[in-house]
Specification:
binds iron/sulfur cluster, NO2/SO3_Rdtase_FeS/sirohaem_BS, 549 residues, alpha+beta, 14 helices, 22% strand, iron-sulfur, 4Fe-4S, 21 strands, oxidoreductase
């Protein structure tokens, strides 16, 4: 086994404090999350939910299960209504939370059959007050879930092969995959087999259910899963000798201290992806920093080690073999959201539909299942851009599908603004939020569609709205990224608003937006602000000039 020397700071001197790296013997619990994870594997909470909490009610749930372990089963307490964002930081968790839960359903690769979609939709209407948001991790997220209903929800999900296992928590979260895997005419190999194998072998596996923090994965031939910002990404590449396979990137992530993932310079054939993935997860488990939560993501280890050392440890300690060298995957000029009507490999069509910022409902999802089946389809995919794609549509069924779903807010021929505005959960349900986001996104899209209907943009301008300094809506990689905070308006009042980050992007434009300290906007003025920026950009930029410039 290779011995990995203690991490050194930029000065080169070994840091004197343990970072909580298990592989270096630093096993002592280092923060409260590490304590409760060490006391009892978080996955074990399921039995207590079924046997005790669902019967005895919300008040019977102890704090470490309620705000800790239940996340491993996709459950967070949601924000108590009526608490304004200015008080978020000053209240204790129990003062902020309601007796209802947000629940995330795992749908790896965003893949759902229409049968599964009907079950997901039925749970929404029956148990979640008709809520259902499409997250940018290809999950469906419910609100208003009562603890009493959780076992029945699990039963229904599992009856159609779905679950909430490790949908949240310090574990391998849902695996992103191309929404058009297996049907795209641009695809050389379909990564779905690797996603399925990882799910089958490792999700719920207690050897990797206690990681230092969350762990995000993307596996896709097409670079349509935000490949630069996952903890581990396998993205399609053609090897000159070995044919199609995957380029491996590690250590991407946003939030505070954003990092773009780095290439390890390897080539991974499809059938080796699960083994290599498990190796990367295991490095994170063993060498990840567990002392401080805000330094516990894999990106910090990758930044300190660098790609060369990471690859060496992966090969020598975890795989016991060298990986093939490989070329970099091609980089798209812009992220691909799949909204519109496109031909599949088999001549049928896939239809990408844009709700605003992922907001749908159980009733709408039932209508999607009906319309998809009427058009000959039994497969739907969620996208990492909060969109929805219906696969396998017969060509002569396209117009009816598009016409049926547009009045429900699912638009195939969508405006640039409907396509490029994303928003996180925000103050409506999130305990960490400072400002409202989803309704704002809805109003903003309507406003921009009207006021900028004359503007022919030569590239879309993405607007990502976050309710707090975290980055659930990926603000650092948007053209206009908006970080929720309380700001001072022109009359000196403290109101909801945003710190603006300008000029971030993915693909060829990959990089983080610039935060200009004075660049703040109130929620009420957001429409005016975006109109100004869009018109200035369109009138002043030169051909080929990027938004960031
Ligand atoms: Fe909540 Fe903040 Fe994430 Fe939005 S960005 S969902 S407000 S934690």
């Amino acid at each position: 086994m290779t011995t990995v020397a203690p991490r050194t700071g930029s000065s080169g001197r070994a840091r004197d404090r343990s970072e909580g790296q298990w592989a270096l013997g630093q096993r002592e619990p280092l923060n409260h999350n590490e304590v409760f994870k060490a006391e009892d594997d978080a996955l074990n909470v399921r039995r207590r939910v079924e046997e005790v909490y669902a019967k005895e009610g919300f008040a019977s749930i102890p704090g470490d299960d309620l705000r800790g372990r239940m996340r491993w089963w996709g459950l967070y307490t949601q924000r108590r209504p009526g608490i304004d964002g200015g008080r978020t930081a000053s209240l204790e968790p129990e003062e902020l939370e309601d007796e209802y839960f947000m629940m995330r359903v795992r749908s790896d690769g965003g893949a759902l059959t229409t049968e599964q979609l009907r079950v997901v939709a039925g749970i929404s209407t029956e148990f979640a007050r008709d809520t259902a948001d499409i997250s940018d991790r290809q999950n469906i997220q419910y609100h208003w879930i009562r603890i009493e209903d959780v076992p029945e929800i699990w039963r229904r999900l599992e009856s159609v092969g779905l679950s909430t296992t490790e949908a949240c928590g310090d574990c391998p979260r849902v695996v992103l995959g191309s929404p058009v895997a297996g049907v795209s005419t641009e695809e050389r190999i379909d990564g779905t087999a690797a996603i399925e194998e990882i799910k089958r072998r490792y999700i719920g596996d207690q050897s990797i259910s206690n990681l230092p923090r969350k762990f995000k994965t993307a596996i896709s031939w097409l670079p349509d899963t935000a490949p630069e910002i996952n903890d581990v990404t396998f993205v399609g590449v053609e090897h000159p000798e070995h044919g199609p396979g995957f380029d491996l990137l590690v250590g991407g992530g946003l939030s505070t201290n954003p990092h773009l993932a780095v290439r390890l310079g390897t080539f991974v054939p499809l059938e080796e992806v699960p083994e290599v993935w498990y190796g990367v997860v295991s490095i994170f488990r063993d060498y990840g920093y567990r002392r401080l939560r805000h330094r516990a993501r894999l990106k910090f280890l990758v930044k300190d080690w660098g790609a060369e050392k990471f690859r060496e440890v992966l090969e020598t300690e975890y795989l016991q073999r060298r990986l093939l060298d490989g070329p970099p995957a091609p980089v798209p000029s812009r992220p691909v959201d799949h909204v519109g009507v496109f031909e599949q490999q088999d001549g049928r069509r896939y239809v990408g539909l844009a709700p605003v910022a992922g907001r749908v409902s159980g009733s709408t999802l039932t209508a999607v299942a009906d319309a998809a089946e009427a058009a000959g389809s039994q497969r739907v995919r969620l996208t990492p851009y909060q969109k929805l794609v219906v696969l396998d549509v017969e060509p002569d069924g396209v117009e009816e599908l598009v016409g049926t779903l547009a009045p429900l807010g699912l638009v195939a021929r969508a405006s640039t603004w409907r396509r490029s505005v994303m928003a996180c959960t925000g103050i409506e349900y999130c305990k960490l939020a400072i400002v409202e986001t989803k309704q704002l996104a809805h109003d903003l899209v309507g406003d921009l569609e009207q006021r900028l209907s004359d503007l022919e943009l030569d590239r879309p301008i993405s607007v990502h709205i976050n309710g707090c300094p975290n980055s659930c809506a990926r603000i650092q990689v948007a053209d206009i990224g908006l970080k929720g905070q309380i700001v001072t308006d022109a009359d000196g009042n403290q109101v909801e608003g945003f710190q603006v980050h300008l000029g971030g992007g993915l693909g060829l434009d990959a990089g983080f937006g610039r935060k200009l300290r004075s660049h703040k906007v109130t929620s009420a003025e957001l429409g005016d602000y975006v109109v100004r920026v869009a018109r200035n950009y369109q009138s002043q930029h030169e051909e080929g000039e990027r938004f960031a410039e």
